[in-house]
Design brief:
The chain is mostly beta strands. It has one helix at 14-18, and strands spanning 27-31, 36-39, 57-60, 65-69, 74-78, 82-85. It has a two-stranded antiparallel ribbon. A two-stranded antiparallel sheet has the order 3-6.
């Protein structure tokens, strides 16, 4: 079964994404030819393997904090912070 993505002008409720009891699953929220928006849930201490995609990536921390590490450098994101990865 294909993932259900938001349609143009369909609001996405990010408040639900902030509620850890609402849905603890990672899933794709919307997808177009130019953009994919994913809610990625990582439990405390879990490490995501190295990942590459064509183009730029933005990561926004919605809850907790996350350490981002690239071959060039790293940073720590806290709630409400956003970073661009070229």
């Amino acid at each position: 079964m294909a993932l259900q993505h938001a349609q143009p002008l369909q609001p996405i409720d990010l408040a639900v994404a902030l509620d850890p009891n609402a849905s603890g699953l990672s899933h794709s929220l919307l997808k177009t030819e130019q953009l994919q928006l994913i809610k990625l849930v990582l439990p405390r201490g879990q490490v995501m393997p190295q990942h590459q995609v064509p183009g730029e990536i933005t990561i926004q921390c919605l809850l907790g904090e996350v350490e981002i590490t690239t071959p060039q450098r790293g940073c720590l994101l806290r709630v409400g912070e956003l970073v661009l990865l070229p």
